[in-house]
Write a structure and sequence with these properties.
Elements (H helix, E strand, L loop, with lengths): L2 H21 L5 H5 L2 H20 L9 H29 L7 H16 L12 E2 L3 E2 L5 E5 L3 E2 L13 H13 L7 E5 L3 E4 L6 H18 L3 E5 L1 H8 L5 H4 L4 E6 L2 E8 L2 H6 L4 H16 L1
Parallel strand pairs: 3-5, 3-7, 4-6, 7-9
Antiparallel strand pairs: 1-6, 2-5, 8-9
Helix pairs in contact: 1-3, 3-4, 5-7
């Protein structure tokens, strides 16, 4: 048997085993990030090399503790892959979660914590505060705005969602259609409170999308009212102007079994600057009231 060939093959096996064992270290960050598929490929390559060595006459190369451990770990990966497939199949077959009061509270708190520590886009580095929303878990009506902006020197209060004056106006609007505090939840698409001059971009909105969609799925309000063009286009994916879209209901499919009507109207900040548009907004609110009371 060619000694140099044996030496080359054995060296390759040792290198392969060493590489694999690094990837499989229990506390290795690399192991966490490295896919199971790649690990399996490395294992298969190492085993093939061992078979080649045995064919060439090296019958006992597998007896060392490192090699035995190496060979056995492949079975663990195989079982892990099989368990993963079973778990994925199980998830697909499960029906949509039915939320109880405790579940809703817990999951909204989880989302709030995720938003507080979110670093998903560049906005996190200059946000003045995180704004997950405010309201009751059994809200009939969900208001969705764009984002909260404030002057840098202003003191942020956790109860503010649209703005100080804007929130006061929204409170009067909901009272006018006989809604109580427990009937309403208020949130924004962008979950960061930004400096007044900062203008979020499309990629920032996309980063926050999952937060809002999860909130909607948990709350399951009877109606969603988008306030302003940005949240309206975000949820409805329509290109018409707000003046064309406002005052009408549009279905929003949250899941195969859940559709929520969405009605666009003007944002309180726009109404503060353009009080003549309050009449049109009042008509939209009456449409909401009629729908809730029907």
């Amino acid at each position: 048997m060619n000694h140099s060939l044996n030496t080359t093959l054995w060296s390759k096996v040792q290198i392969t085993i060493t590489v694999i064992r690094v990837f499989l270290q229990e506390n290795s960050i690399i192991a966490i990030r490295f896919s199971m598929v790649k690990k399996s490929e490395l294992l298969q390559e190492g085993k093939s090399l061992l078979v080649s060595l045995r064919t060439l006459g090296l019958k006992n190369v597998h007896q060392g503790n490192n090699v035995v451990s190496f060979l056995n770990c492949g079975q663990g990966l195989k079982r892990a892959n099989e368990q993963k497939k079973v778990a994925q199949a199980d998830i697909k077959e499960k029906p949509l979660r039915k939320y109880g009061q405790k579940d809703i509270n817990t999951d909204l708190i989880v989302i709030h914590d995720e938003i507080t520590h979110c670093t998903g886009c560049e906005l996190h580095s200059e946000r003045l505060a995180s704004v997950s929303g405010r309201g009751e878990v059994r809200a009939k009506l969900l208001f969705v705005g764009g984002w909260l902006s404030m002057k840098e020197q202003e003191a942020y209060q956790s109860s503010i969602v649209f703005g100080v004056e804007e929130d006061v106006m929204l409170g009067k609007m909901t009272q006018a259609i006989n809604l109580q505090t427990e009937d309403v939840f208020i949130t924004n698409i962008i979950k960061c409170c930004l400096k007044e001059a900062k203008q979020p971009q499309v990629e920032h909105i996309k980063c926050c999308r999952s937060y809002l969609m999860r909130q909607i799925n948990i709350l399951k309000p009877e109606i969603i009212c988008t306030m302003g063009l940005v949240p309206t286009r975000f949820l409805l994916n329509k290109k018409q102007s707000l003046s064309q879209l406002r005052g009408h209901f549009y279905p929003l499919a949250i899941s195969n079994s859940l559709n929520i009507p969405v009605i666009p109207t003007y944002h309180p900040s726009y109404l503060l600057a353009n009080p003549e548009m309050k009449k049109a907004t009042w008509a939209d609110l009456q449409t909401i009231q009629k729908q809730l009371e029907s």
